[in-house]
Specification:
mainly beta; four-stranded antiparallel sheet; 11 strands; globular
């Protein structure tokens, strides 16, 4: 089992950048696929980005390609989401998710992740 705690969300102006972090508990973080999802007010949760257990594969939603970068530091039990060129439509609660697997398959659907954090709010002002 793993517990996830997101941080780094804040109010930022359009065009700005920020980095979200997700710290995981436990000693087996390196065996988890990690993902970021987001949910905007009145909208369904959507996939943002994911990274395989060893960082060998990453995958992004089309809406964030070129602006978001997911990475992980297994020594620190942490996954990151670097967000550049922020847009008002990026405003959402961002959730970190984890699934224990050594597969290189990248899941993009919520049910493919067993563990979830509480979320961190990102608000982009125009």
């Amino acid at each position: 089992q793993v517990q996830l705690v997101e941080s780094g969300g804040r109010l930022v102006q359009a065009g700005g950048s920020l980095r979200l972090s997700c710290a995981a508990s436990g000693r087996t973080f390196s065996s988890y696929r990690m993902g970021w999802f987001r949910q905007a007010p009145g909208k369904e949760r959507e996939f943002v980005a994911a990274i395989s257990w060893n960082g060998g594969r990453t995958y992004y939603a089309d809406s964030v390609k070129g602006r978001f970068t997911i990475s992980r530091d297994n020594a620190k039990n942490t996954v990151y989401l670097q967000i550049n060129s922020l847009k008002p439509e990026d405003t959402a609660v961002y959730y970190c998710a984890a699934e224990q697997t050594l597969s290189e398959y990248i899941g993009t659907r919520g049910h493919e992740y067993r563990y979830w954090g509480q979320g961190t709010q990102v608000t982009v002002s125009s």
